[in-house]
Design goal:
- The complex is a heterodimer of chains A (about 220) and B (about 220).
- Chain A has a domain of about 110 residues: Glutathione S-transferase Yfyf (Class Pi), Chain A, domain 2 (Up-down Bundle), CATH 1.20.1050.10.
- In chain A, about 55% of the residues lie in helices and about 5% in strands.
- Chain A starts with 5 loop residues before the first strand and ends with a helix.
- With about 220 residues, chain B is of the alpha+beta class.
- In chain B, helix 1 links the parallel strand 1 and strand 2.
- Chain B is globular, with a radius of gyration of 18 Å.
- The chains are: A alpha+beta (about 220), B alpha+beta (about 220).
């Protein structure tokens, strides 16, 4: 029986959250080891498990995988969330990469200087509403299907739901001009594995706060 | 007969360079359409060719592909430069994502302020010497094969070649301390398709200089 995947990261969202979503969507249980001190982090580095000295790290199927996108791609393929052929896969990749660009802005926001925060938030909301959400609204409109690619639940859907929820945490009415995305959000949230992940007590992490930002900057020393 | 892929970008390295290397390694001829003015970029956007309003964009197989990683994944898969299975692919992804992090520093170099340049170059040298090149030297040492993954030429080798060539121009002493990387560079440079790409007259561009940066800045402003 295969061992459960094990995730090494801080006790917060950061770059690991999308990986938690993907595992949860697949209904796969996973373990987590939280980095709480610089010493723990340095030990991981010395143990040679971090190819480039960085986390996230996921131990899965006998591999020590680092690099967020590499981990996500592997899991997407493993759990059949990556389309049926190369053409579907490239569409999933494009959609996911766009979504990840938006989510990276949100992820980095807590580490900005306080005087830049308002400007950053405004920029995130503007990009969400003018660059990213319209694209996905249009895709859903054009094919009229329930999922973004190939009429089948994929990594692209999971990533988009995660992004929508994160942006809504910044501004609850951000989907007001996007009726199909609203319906999409409800639909995907009701998939049993996703529904379970969205409930309290799951391994989903809360939005980052000052404590989290300080923890990370202390451990990573920036 | 399928047309040649058509690459839309500025006449500069930037985010298109890894794509040239990969197509070149695959022996695929391609066309280039350079953005020379803000109007060129605006036109592509208004024509709806750019999914997220950004370049690079590669027209191929009746698709308009955007997002650098998505494009590279597609080309690598299509031309069998992506390993033999999902585990090979995970390794290739992990290696190329790490390289992309280093490459991002290099890509942004022409855009930094003159007073910051020395510090940025020093950072690139430091990360190359202490984080990235050692990782790949160890990989090559661990299996003693001619290529990074699966004993077969892959996207990971091509991406590494790109970095080796750049770093050598920046500071030859950085490569001299990694004998296996040096040997890989020589070996892959002698592959017929790569040899052709390294010769004058190929699509390979010289490093982005101050003039092309100024031109790019005008376009980036939009």
């Amino acid at each position: 029986m295969a061992a459960k995947p094990k995730l090494y990261y801080f006790d917060g969202r950061g770059r690991m959250e999308s990986i938690r979503w993907l595992l949860a969507a697949a209904g796969v249980e996973f373990e987590e080891e939280f980095l709480e001190t610089r010493e723990q982090y340095e030990k991981l580095q010395r143990d040679g498990r971090l190819l480039f000295g960085q986390v996230p790290l996921v131990e899965v199927d006998g591999m020590m995988l680092t690099q967020t996108r590499a981990i996500l791609s592997y899991l997407a393929a493993k759990f059949n969330f990556y389309g049926k052929d190369l053409k579907e896969r490239v569409r999933i990749d494009m959609y996911v990469d766009g979504t990840l660009d938006l989510m990276t802005m949100i992820m980095l926001a807590p580490f900005q200087r306080p005087e830049k925060k308002q400007e950053t938030l405004a920029s995130i909301l503007q990009k969400a509403k003018t660059r990213y959400f319209p694209v996905f609204e249009k895709i859903l409109k054009e094919h009229g299907e329930d999922f973004l690619v190939g009429n089948k639940f994929s990594w692209a859907d999971i990533q988009l739901l995660e992004a929508i929820l994160m942006v809504e945490e910044l501004n609850a009415s951000v989907l007001s001009d996007f009726p199909l995305l609203k319906a999409f959000k409800t639909r995907i949230s009701n998939i049993p594995t996703i529904k379970k992940f969205l409930q309290p007590g799951s391994q989903r992490k809360p939005p980052p706060d000052t404590h989290y930002a300080n923890l990370v900057s202390n451990i990573l020393q920036f | 007969m399928a047309g040649k892929p058509k690459l839309h970008y500025f006449n500069a390295w930037g985010r298109m360079e890894p794509i040239w290397w990969l197509l070149a390694a695959a022996g695929v001829e391609f066309e280039e359409k350079f953005l020379e003015s803000a109007e060129d970029l605006e036109k592509l956007r208004n024509d709806g060719y750019l999914m997220f309003q950004q370049v690079p964009m590669v027209e191929t197989d009746r698709m308009k592909l955007v997002q650098t990683t998505a494009i590279l994944n597609y080309i690598a898969s299509k031309y069998n430069l992506y390993g033999k299975d999902i585990k090979d692919r995970a390794l290739i992804d992990m290696y190329t994502e790490g390289m992309a992090d280093l490459y991002e520093m290099i890509l942004l170099l022409p855009l930094c302020r003159p007073e910051e340049k020395d510090a940025k170059i020093a950072l690139i040298q430091e990360k190359t010497k202490n984080r990235y090149f050692p990782a790949f030297e160890i990989v090559l040492k661990s299996h003693e094969q001619d290529y990074l993954v699966g004993n077969k030429l892959s996207w990971a080798d091509m991406q590494l070649m790109e970095l080796l060539y750049f770093v050598e121009e920046l500071d030859p002493s950085l490569i001299s301390i990694f004998p296996l990387l040096q040997a890989l560079k020589t070996r892959i440079s002698n592959l017929p398709t790569v040899k052709k790409f390294l010769q004058p007259g190929s699509p390979r561009k010289p490093p982005t200089n101050a003039k092309s940066v100024e031109e790019a800045r005008k376009l980036f402003k939009s």
